[in-house]
Amino acid sequence: MLRFMPVGDSMTIGSAGEHTWRYRMWQHLRATYGGPFRIVGPRETLYDKATESPDSHEYADPDFPRAHLAGWGEGWQHMVPLIGAAVRTQRADVLLVSLGLIDLGFYTNAVQTAANARAFVAEARAANPRIHLVLLPVIPNVRVESDAPFAAEVAAFNELLAKAVADLDEPRSPVLLASPPPGYDFRHDTYDGTHPNATGEHKIAEAFAEAMYQAWDLGEPYSA
Prior knowledge:
Elements (H helix, E strand, L loop, with lengths): L1 E7 L1 H4 L7 H12 L4 E3 L6 E3 L4 E4 L12 E2 L5 H15 L3 E5 L2 H7 L2 H18 L4 E5 L11 H21 L6 E3 L20 H19 L8
Parallel strand pairs: 1-2, 1-5, 1-6, 6-7, 7-8
Antiparallel strand pairs: 3-4
Helix pairs in contact: 2-7, 3-5, 5-6
């Protein structure tokens, strides 16, 4: 039984009424992965913009394994102290991680964010020395058009993340850097310049799926 845990920020937890890319990934794995698997994580809810709390179960299609470790406004620095316990209790084998945008936007610069990413990997491995990780680069949002320093931090972090993956990858606990979602454009693949709409959800799921297929021969090429 292979256990996948989605880890992320607002783009991963999603908000009330959405499918989320987690749902798209589950559909893909169910169709293409040849063995038993589970989606795991200590949380199940969506973010409710009306209550400003992660207390919604109003998925567009609630009939799927909704477990995750994601939070609205949470980034690498928030997940570092949580990931060890989550990996242990959920017995996670593969982490699908999309973090960094909120860090760079509000909390830490590129160097600090990259240090937190490395700490995250260390904590995950302390809980499971054979953990597999797929890390998604930060997907630029609409802010890059009007905030040049922020755009520079995003680009710098993505370079530092690639270096971290190269440094940390090892046979027992591989770390993959997924390619940016193919053709992703915040003008067309989000509903507000940041959060994915249906096409964006598929493209994020595809980025994770293609990385695992190409590197580990897990599943098949993504098909929406």
